[in-house]
Amino acid sequence: MAETVLIALVAIVVLFVVIALAKSIKIIPQAHTGLVERLGRYKESLGAGPHLIVPFIDRVRYVIDMREQVVSFPPQNVITEDNLGVSIDTVIYFQVTDPVAATYEIGNYITAVEQLTMTTVRNIVGGMDLEETLTSRDSINAGLASVLDEATGRWGLKAKRVEIKSIDPPVSIRDAMEKQMRADRDKRASILTAEGERQSAILTAEGNKQSAILNAEGQRESQILRAQADRESQILRAQGEGQAIQTVFQAIHDGRPDQSLLAYQYLQMMPKIAEGESNKLWIVPSEIGKALEGLGSTLTNMEGIPQQVDGPRTRVEMGPGAAPDVDAELRKTNAAVEQAIAAAESAARPGRPATPADTDPAVGPGEVPPTT
């Protein structure tokens, strides 16, 4: 019986020792700090690693995370200066710098930071209108960080950064803003289109002006050149006609024309008299010889044309091999004309035998042909 009691006492002692050792050894994780209380009062702070404390007297009441923490708060409805409600989401980046103050100066520092953030955002946004609120994220962040840093310093916290995730106005306001934005964009598009059309019209007018100026200058130069060409052409034509007249006049005087030349020119014009589509029959009168004699006598008496020309004739150089025999041509022409007259007279008196004068151009009318 005594042995059983002894064994039970030894077991109790061993169990107590094990429990005491378990309570005296504490392991603190990395980047954390343990707060030790002795009989309910703060004693010391334990860093990362194993530590020995007095069991049943000391205990690690809190283990504080010393890393930077990120807390995202739910959207909060905030009223702007122009009485419009907006929903704002915030994100806080903070770090515990004093674990004792964070534990004993505030009951729940995360809740305290959330509430402080809400009130600060309402104070800042309450002094802005909707448009300024939507475009002043940086100023809101700066004001919120300044207030949080000042208020949380005594809580052992350090607000690293404060960010506004989103600012959502009401649905009706968003629709109105979209319409306003669309109208503004349409107005800017219309302005840009009008400016483009104006620039296009200006450039087109300038181009037309330059084109008209260039066309006028081109027409003026063309008219000037055409007038100069006409003038030069008329001058050259007049000079050519003058030289031709001078050459013909000089040739006539050099040739010293007489009655035979005038008769030859008249005989050359007789075939042209018969030309024409309406001339079907040409009757040569028997008195043509007398007419020619009268014409010759009339032309002989013309002023400036001598009856006979004495002295040698001056011929116009026609080029090598081009000087015609004028006398031979004249004789042939006279013979042809006389033969044509005789044939016409024979046809006019039928039944009369043809005489040698009708066929021989060398025998005149009423003459006897020579015998061989």
Structure description:
This is SPFH/Band 7/PHB domain protein. Residues 23-181 form the Band domain. Residues 343-372 are annotated as: Disordered. By secondary structure, the protein is of the alpha+beta class. The protein folds into four domains: 2-65, no CATH class; 69-169, Tetrahydropterin Synthase, Chain A; 171-255; 257-273 and 282-309 and 326-366, no CATH class. The protein is 56% helix and 17% strand. The chain is built from ten helices and eight strands. The chain has helices spanning 2-24, 99-104, 109-126, 130-134, 137-152, 171-255, 259-274, 288-300, 326-348, 356-359, and strands spanning 25-28, 32-38, 41-46, 49-52, 58-65, 69-79, 85-96, 157-168. The strands form three sheets. It has a three-stranded antiparallel β-sheet. Helix 3 crosses helix 5 (137-152) and helix 7 packs across helix 9 (326-348). It starts with a helix and ends in a 13-residue tail after the last helix. Residues 311-316, 318-326 and 356-372 have low confidence and may be disordered.
Which SSEs are present, and which pair or pack?
Blueprint: H1 2-24, E1 25-28, E2 32-38, E3 41-46, E4 49-52, E5 58-65, E6 69-79, E7 85-96, H2 99-104, H3 109-126, H4 130-134, H5 137-152, E8 157-168, H6 171-255, H7 259-274, H8 288-300, H9 326-348, H10 356-359
Antiparallel strand pairs: 1-4, 2-3, 2-5, 6-7, 7-8
Biased composition (Low complexity): 343-354
GO cellular component, one term: plasma membrane
InterPro entries: Band7/mec-2_domain, Band_7, Band_7/SPFH_dom_sf, Stomatin_HflK_fam
Which short descriptors sum up this protein?
SPFH/Band 7/PHB domain protein; 3-stranded antiparallel β-sheet; Tetrahydropterin Synthase, Chain A; rod-shaped; alpha+beta; 372 residues
